[in-house]
Structure formats: structure tokens, C-alpha cells
Write a structure and sequence with these properties.
This protein is of the alpha/beta class. Helix content is 28%, strand content 21%. A hairpin with a 2-residue loop joins β4 (65-70) and β5 (73-74). α5 (116-125) packs across α6 (154-167).
């Protein structure tokens, strides 16, 4: 059925959302469609509503008004297990499990026994090198001082969480500020690998850093819970709007060689 193939995989239909006890809406009368296989970057300053939006479009939150349709299913009535089974995510707040590195990665997919080849591939995609200085027992290194293991820096833990997201079998992937603890120049390599990984899959990337948004088919610019601009990097840079203002303010973080300035 051609119509079914062309239907958007995710549709947000005039949704609004407020956190309990808050008068101000975090998301206000917002509509958006994301097509199957599309990569969409969601950008905006702190407090713009980016993380709230991504939790709504992944089915983790339910809108107060309006509808979120994923594969034609309303998140308010759809089976939660069915929705969550097709998605992999890396969020700002992630778990630091007191267990070996390999298990920290494989825990994202409990449907089968951990597979070392998959774990190794996921670590590589997350740009996490198993140096003996940091991981003396390689993948078997315990990630907790309490159990005679090691303490990892925030940047290393972030890469472990990203590898966890890569390990899980998925049709859709959501990355919510996945490189927050990683240097802006270091994130370049990671996003290149993310581009390879997201090919043919529906991907949502949430970030306040604009240096890597060119990997997206479309960029959604948010401000105060609303969408103020949508377009490609090139289109938005030609406009004298919020995206261009933010990009130019951040351009000092990047170099011509490494990024998009």
C-alpha cells in the first residue's frame, strides 16, 4: 500500500504538555511529522522544551492535549511494550551500573544472551577505546570502586551509555544531548559514526550544540515550547532567524576543518 509507506512514522498533532504543579506549558500547541527513515535534529537554548518534546514523541510522556501517533498508534492507548520495543535511546540522565563494562553495554537488550561481537561493535561506534590504562581487564573491567573496579570520568560514562544505545536492536533511535560531557571537537567523530548507524532508521537528535546538525535531514528549532523554524542547515543559515543567531554564537567552538562553519 503506497499510502501506508508514505505515511509519517511519528505525528505530533497539536500537542501541549505541562509538568505537574507548573502553570507554564513546557510544550504549547505543537505539531510535527517525522517520516520513516528521516533524521531530525531538535535544537534550542536551555529550557526551550527539547527534552520534553523527545520524551513525548518517543512515548515516554503522554500529552495533556492533542495526539502523538507512532506507526499510526496513539501513545495514550497503544501497548507500551510494543512501542518501547522498537526504540533505543541515550538520554542526558543515564544509569551507571556497578557491573563490568560488557554487561553495562549489553544490559540495554535483555532479550538474548550478551554477544561479544555486538558489544565490541557498539563500543567502536561510541568511540570508546579499551586502553589498558582505563580498562585494565578490558570488557571485564568492573565499573565501580566499591567492587575493586575503576572510576570512569563523565566523558567515558557518556560513551558507555552511547554504546548501550547502539547495542539495542531498534527501528528508531533517540539521542538526547548524547555528547554533553564530551568536548565539542571530540563529538565530531561520534556524530559521523551516528550518521552511519542511523542510515535507513528514524532518528531524533536533541542538542544545544549546533556544530553537528548537518547530519540531519531537517532541523527543528524550538523556543519556549514551540517550533519557531524548520529546515536544513543551509536553509536556516540563509534566514536571519534564531538558528543562524545560535550557530554564529557557537562558531568559536569549532574549526573549519572539523566542523561546518
Amino acid at each position: 500500500d503506497i499510502q501506508m509507506e508514505e505515511a509519517p512514522e511519528i505525528r505530533l498533532d497539536h500537542i501541549s504538555f505541562a509538568y505537574p504543579g507548573c502553570r507554564e506549558k513546557a510544550i504549547a500547541d505543537l505539531s510535527l511529522t517525522v517520516r520513516s527513515g528521516e533524521t531530525v535534529a531538535v535544537v534550542g537554548q536551555n529550557g526551550a522544551g527539547k527534552s520534553t518534546l523527545v520524551k513525548l514523541l518517543s512515548g515516554l510522556y503522554l500529552p495533556d492535549t492533542g495526539r502523538v501517533l507512532i506507526d499510526g498508534q496513539d501513545t495514550k492507548t497503544a501497548d507500551r511494550g510494543s512501542l518501547m520495543g522498537k526504540i533505543s535511546g541515550v538520554f542526558q540522565k543515564f544509569q551507571r551500573y556497578a557491573m563490568p563494562l560488557n554487561e553495562n553495554v549489553a544490559i540495554s537488550d535483555m532479550s538474548c544472551e550478551p554477544k561479544e561481537t555486538r558489544i565490541a561493535a557498539s563500543l567502536e561506534k561510541a568511540d570508546l577505546t579499551l586502553s589498558r590504562e582505563v580498562f585494565p581487564q578490558g570488557g571485564k573491567t568492573m565499573l565501580s570502586r566499591e567492587f575493586d573496579g575503576v572510576d570512569l570520568s563523565g566523558g567515558y560514562w557518556q560513551r558507555v551509555a552511547i554504546a548501550r544505545g547502539f547495542y539495542r536492536t531498534h527501528d528508531r533511535i533517540v539521542l538526547d544531548e548524547p555528547t554533553a560531557a564530551i568536548d565539542p571537537l571530540e563529538e565530531t567523530k561520534l556524530y559521523r559514526k551516528f550518521t552511519e548507524m542511523s542510515r535507513g532508521k528514524t532518528s531524533i537528535l536533541v542538542t544545544h550544540r549546533l556544530g553537528s546538525t548537518k547530519i540531519a535531514d531537517r532541523i527543528v528549532v524550538m523556543e519556549k515550547g514551540r517550533i519557531v523554524q524548520v529546515g536544513t542547515h543551509e536553509n536556516l543559515m540563509r534566514m536571519n532567524g534564531k538558528y543562524r543567531e545560535m550557530f554564529e554564537a557557537q562558531s568559536k567552538w569549532y574549526t573549519d576543518k572539523d566542523h561546518l562553519v
